[in-house]
Amino acid sequence: MIYADILTKLKTRKLFAILVDPDKHDEESLQQLAGLTNDSVIDFILVGGSLVSGSVDETVYALKGKTNLPILLFPGNVLQISPHADAILFLSLISGRNPEFLIGNHVIAAPVLKKINLEIIPTAYILIENGRTTAVEYVSNTKPIPADKIDLTVATAMAGEMLGHKMLYLEAGSGALNPVNSDMIREVKKNTGIPLIVGGGIHTTEQVRQIYDAGADIIVVGSVAEDNTEEFTSLLEFVKDLRKQ
Ligand code: 1GP
Which CATH architecture has domain 2-244? Predict the structure, then answer.
């Protein structure tokens, strides 16, 4: 079980994951990415995005043939369900007040999910303002929580945990100017007891260090992994070194 594995790993170390947006990859780049993932520090791969015009299922299927890592769906909408994935982050956008992203899409997806053998991981998804409008903000038609409203974010995260979510996801949005700040991560971690994922706008080793130090359990990077850049390779090396310490 994916969630149980995550909890077990978190007893001894932090986790690192990548987000694959199907629109940003073709067969060749998936092959390249998969080559990097095997025998690396990456713990799992998320697949999805706010607006995906290609097929999530095809991308998951292609990845499955190339990597042994677990594939978790990170759906921006109900079209992004694939029976070939290992699990789905059943995201409820609890920072927003758009009922479609709080429960509407979930009602539509539930009968489909019931029929396929996908582990469901209920996840409280919390969008934080980052300095620019991101796709998730625009497409979800929700307001992110201002970056300086730490109390509000903590209360939102606590409510997410109390509602029974199994993980918290602090999201600055893909291509965020600023990742979620350390003070916010620290306070959320201090006041909640479920795994804390942080993503959006992370591309340097210093950001990774700060975000882990502040209390994130899992870091997710997307854009930096897209072009197989040196930046990405050095992030992987950096996380590897951190784990040796
Ligand atoms: C995953 O949205 C992020 O939480 C991905 O963001 O593309 O900025 O890494 P980046």
Answer: Alpha-Beta Barrel (3.20)
